[in-house]
Amino acid sequence: MEPEVVPEVVVVGSANVDLVLPVQRIPRPGETVLAGAMTRGPGGKGANQAVASARAGARTAMVVALGDDEGGALLRSALEGVDLSLATTSEAPTGTAIITVEESGENSIVVAPGANGELTLSAEAVAAIGQAKIVLSQLEIPFATVQAAAAASAYFILNAAPAAELSDELLAEVDLLVVNETEAEAIAGPDRSALLKKVPAAVVTLGGAGAVILTRDADEIAVPGVPVEVFDTTAAGDTFCGVLAATLTVASANDSITGSDLTNAVRRANVAASLSVQAAGAIPSVPHGDAIDARYAEVYL
To answer: N or C: which terminal CB in the chain sees fewer CB atoms within 10 Å?
Structure first.
């Protein structure tokens, strides 16, 4: 089924049921720790990013595979504001993520892909991707699907997470790469500027320290983080990516994204991520556009 309205952002990605375990500290190899009360909720990098994009104000559709199970039903109901006409139902179970969150707010995640590993692009999905202003994907789905989405898109953002070695063929299709420091090193080694040998632009996120923008035609731009008290970092990076994509749709309406456009989008994404870490969970922690813009005005205007 095709979307009724042409989406501005299409997210091609994963959706998981998150099992969250609060712990005093994340266990070391071979160590067992006791957890507090487990919570269960919607998440997955793609789902988080799609909700973040929609809440930030962009018409957003998602290409996703969900199981024909209770987890799939949970995610469909949780993806508020996201067009799911391109979602497919898989015989595999809905993906599951087990997340330990320590008292500092840092987390560790293990994902069982389930239906995410079965995701492919239908003809309708390829058509929607081709019409979207921005296409955003991650690496919790098959590489072949990411590659096909990249090839069909006008402007492709790759959040290369989880960290993985990427082919030159895929990187050649990327317009903007978003990675954290670990992921950047996995792709280009210790010198992050080497990313520009592979992609025309990159944003390297630095957690609470903010982000760095790299482009081939300008000097590195540092965007400081927004200081807050951290409660739970789950989905902070996904919130950043979704809001970044949504904000760039305004720039792409002019058929070009400038350095100042990218800087503004990273600032807004930084603000959104800072709001998300002050709340628990993945999708439940993603802020809405009015909260993002109010905080943006306080920080930058």
So the answer is: C
